[in-house]
Amino acid sequence: MTFDLQMVPQTFDMLHAGLVASSILLLLVTVFRKAKIVEKTVEKLVEVEKPVETIVEVERIVEVEKVVEKVVEVESKLKTADTDSALQLLSIIQQESRLIDFLSEDITGFSDEEVGAAARVIHNGGRKVLSDYLSLKPIRDENEETQITIENGFNPQEIRLTGNISGEAPFSGTLIHKGWRVDSISLPKLSENFDANILAPAEVEL
To answer: Cα separation of 127 and 96, whole Å?
Structure first.
């Protein structure tokens, strides 16, 4: 039996080609399986980490909500002044006593008699406004220029201490001014289209 030696290299090349192809195929299968294992492992890790991340996020949200609640609580303690009522009262005083006209005027060139005459008009009109729309009461009942004692726990809005202040209450001092408190206020009701910023309309005589 004879062999064709020229066929040996070709057979050998095909064999090696098959081996190489099989090796590559096995390598791809192995890599693919490892990738699947890694992917599953990562998925498991992510599944394990998700609750931890969720807890952290919930804690952060709770902390933020607590801060917001504190800010809202502080803001709720601050009162907003009703500017319409203040402007309305100023408008009534202007109507009765021309207070804004007097305060806007430069009185440096006026004599004391002229200022006194204007002050009398303002006093009469302002007194009428207080009597008609406000109920006032003194904060302290003692006579002015008398010695009084300020006990501990006094309201600093009602009593303002001046002079040499040292130590803690009780304080003893001279009553300089009784102070005033508004017991009630009864201003006219405003219409829906009322513009409180107009303190006094321009007057035109025809």
So the answer is: 9
